[in-house]
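assembly run, all chains below
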Amino acid sequence: MISALIIVFREVIEAGLIVGIVLAATAGVPHRGRAVAMGVLAGVLGACLVAAFAGQLSNLFQGSGQEIFNAAILLLAVAMLTWHNVWMASHGREMARELKAAGHQVKTGERTLAALSIVVGVAVLREGSEVVLFLYGIAAQGGTTAGGMVTGGMLGLAAGGVVSALMYFGLLTIPAGRLFQVTSGLITLLAAGMAAQAVLFVQNGGWLEYFTMTVWDTSWLVKEDSITGRLLHTLVGYSEAPNGAQLIAYGATILMILVLMRLVPQGQKSAKRMPA
Amino acid sequence: MKKLLLALLMIATPVLADEPIVVHLKNHKFSPSVIKVKANKPAMIILYNDDASADEFDSSSLKIERVVPGHNKGNIRLRALAPGKYPFMGEFHAATAQGVVIAE
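ok done. output:
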């Protein structure tokens, strides 16, 4: 039971942290609870589908289907996080000020909610498909231990929920005026980490043969599979021994988001010029 | 960035050095569990999961997470590795599914 608890908790941490950050980033936006819940629900359904068709998926693209799929959904999440940050750079401040004011604000707020809903869905889908496969495996074996392990799995899920709540309430202790800057910084690093992870999947699929040598190794300091390492991996994309292509993707993503946030015109009038 | 990746996806084809190494996972144990590869050369492991349940080939030092469903196989590409030991495990059955890649 304990082993099931640990493994499920480990998988759920990532999704939990991302949900916590998304909830904090959308503090005060109406209907965000519904958007996040829909993201989680879609993620769980998607996870079950991915688990059910894991065999077919992994045989696609000359046996690299799993890697390509993971890279694709991570890049989708990177795009959505980028769009959210750029959109918030343009509208966030007014929204924070005039939140209760007009229906127009509510309506535009829903667009970025949709983007973040997709991010939540992707996070839950990625970690969830492994949890589903793992729990299904032990449930299918049956026997007296299976019940205990499923219980452990459920406790692991609950513990992941607690992490999510801690992240959310921790962020909410930041004064409202600075919360926007903190969450947009967190989301930038989240996106950069995901882009680096996507590059890794592309490499593991055998589709990117450049800059694969390790640039530095900090495993002596923080092991990537320690709890600290995993938290850092999720939050800022920590890798104990990143390779060149990962670092390029990481840096390029941060640069891209910062430049786009600068470029985007401030104010409501820009809404019509924003790409949908 | 994404365009670059897509472009690379289209032009690059998987490159394979030498013969792939066949590894079986049965009763949640790898055989062989010690895998030797040449240092500084890419290699490929074909992992046959002979168990009914899925497992995940997981190694932070190899930077690989690859789910292999029950009664299925998975291609696991190892990048060119510096000489050394790289432990891996079947994450869903870590108590028994343990192994190591040795690059030399």
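Residues 17-103 of chain B form a domain with the Immunoglobulin-like fold (CATH 2.60.40.420).

Chain B touches chain A at residues 1-2, 5, 8-9, 12-16, 42, 44, 52-56, 60-61, 63-64, 66-70, 72-77, 79-80, 82, 91-92, 94-95 (CB under 8 Å).

not gonna interpret more than that til we talk
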